[in-house]
Amino acid sequence: MSLFPLSASPRHRPPAGLLAGPPQVVAVLRLLPGLALTACAMAVAQWAGRALPGVSPAVVAVVLGVALGSLTTPPAVFGAGLRFASRRLLRLAIVVLGLQVALPEVLALGWRPLALVAVSTVCTFALTRWIGPRMGVSPRRSLLIATGVSVCGAAAVAAMHEVADGDDDDVAGAVGVVVLYGSAALVVLPVVARLAGLSPYGLGLWAGASVHEVAQVAAIGATAGGGVLACAVMVKLARVALLAPLVAFTSLTLRRPACDRSRDRSGVRRPPLVPLFVLGFLAAVAVRSLGVVPVGVVEIVPQVTALSLAAALFALGTGVDLRTLARGGRSLALGGLATAVIGAISLIGVLAIG
């Protein structure tokens, strides 16, 4: 189900005189209702994120969007603003996310933790994409689940959605999977860590290398104490740094055949195969790594990212049919398998590192 078109119904069209004026002014006026609705949802999501430890505003936002889109049909006047939020604000969120990643700090972890992150992420991503269609999950949804579980939860799902050409139900299904199993990790990981005899450092390393959402990783680190938080978050940011190459690689593999066929028929120059927002993410990482970003900006980057991502996911969620999502038992099974894979590989690596 797509977001609601402005021309869906004559009774939802604003009076002609209301939108009279220069085209730029008309375009802005069309955005205002949808953006106002999105702002209200963001406020609720921010409040819930502060009240519920380990739950990110992005997760709350997509739940609100799905609930709204499933229980009612918002008037078409909201459509332009929702489309703006689901596209432009999504790309902004991914670019700003790059300002959280400082490569010198990530590299300071040492080659062993970084190798663990790379192996667990790539293996989980590849295995989930391969096994998903064999379990009856569509290739596009399998791709989104693979990205969300292996990299960084809802943000990764939203970024990959930009190049995967899936529908909004796929996004909601993948986000639901990473929320479910990431939330379960808040309880399971500390218990298993104690049984396995992991040190606080080992728990932080395991959480950062295997748990889906940044907020969930931070929650485990904050409650475990013993310096776990800094270790867990830094390892998690090392996984976030893999988002751009994974999205760029996937974009290349998905679009190249279509572009080749299009160029053969028309001679038109093929479009860029690496999305601009991925290049923006890499540029943001470079700027942060050079140390030229003011401290005050660095401190507010997580909040800006959370707000932008929450807005985008709320808008995407409004286009979801919950009845279709409820039939996603195979998606839940695939998400559980992917979570088990990344958890097992990461734990073996942590035990090997000692």
Automatic annotation (TrEMBL):
Keyword Isomerase: no
Compartment annotation: Cell membrane
Record Pfam families: Cons_hypoth698 (PF03601)
UniProt-listed InterPro entries: UPF0324_pro
Membrane topology (UniProt): Multi-pass membrane protein
Chief site of localization: membrane
Keyword Coiled coil: no
Family listed: Belongs to the UPF0324 family.
Protein name per the record: YeiH family protein
Organism, as annotated: Streptosporangium jomthongense
